[in-house]
Design goal:
- By secondary structure, the chain is an all-alpha fold.
- It has 2 domains: about 90 residues, no CATH class; about 55 residues.
- About 70% of the residues lie in helices and about 0% in strands.
- The protein has 6 helices and no strands.
- Helix 1 crosses helix 6.
- The longest helix is centred in the middle third of the chain and has 24 residues.
- The chain is globular and about 55 Å long.
- The protein binds zinc ion.
- Zinc ion binds next to helix 6.
């Protein structure tokens, strides 16, 4: 199944989930639908050419740069001097290196652990702690929809 179908099914699952919870605010329903659509891409992070991985790769590169820049310049925008530039480069390449080493050597098999009920629960718990119950429910619905669409649901 291609990523567009996964996103669409994730959106539908998340909207159904928040409607069941009693949400009637249009903006909230749209937001939760978008979260469900993104969450539906997460299980295929175990696949190098998946849309989720492409987004995460680019997102992580941006995140690494902003983290490296922020660690040398603080929260303000600064024009770094030469010493700061070398510090930013060091942190940036260290973060990107760890990320790519992880996916090179520790990536789970395709449709392995990421396509399980256990992974859905872990994902939901993480979402709950970082973003709260509503977003976690939308995320779980989107994540779960991926396995339903793949017709590949395992417990662990
Ligand atoms: Zn999949």
């Amino acid at each position: 199944m291609n990523w567009r179908s996964h996103v669409l099914i994730g959106i539908i699952f998340a909207i159904i989930a928040v409607l069941i919870l009693g949400t009637r605010d249009t903006i909230t329903i749209i937001l939760f639908g978008a979260i469900g659509g993104l969450a539906a891409l997460v299980p295929d992070l175990d696949h190098d050419t998946s849309k989720g991985r492409q987004l995460l790769d680019m997102g992580f590169i941006g995140f690494s740069f902003l983290s490296a820049y922020g660690s040398k310049c603080g929260s303000v925008v600064c024009l770094p001097n030469l010493e700061q530039v070398s510090g930013i480069a060091t942190i940036f390449f260290a973060l990107v290196g760890v990320y790519f080493v992880f996916f090179k050597f520790f990536k789970p098999n395709h449709r392995g652990i990421t396509h399980t009920i256990l992974a859905t629960i872990v994902f939901g718990v993480l979402m709950y702690f970082f973003a709260g119950l509503g977003i976690a429910v939308a995320g779980i619905a989107g994540y779960f929809s991926h396995m339903v669409a793949d017709q590949h649901i395992k417990l662990i």
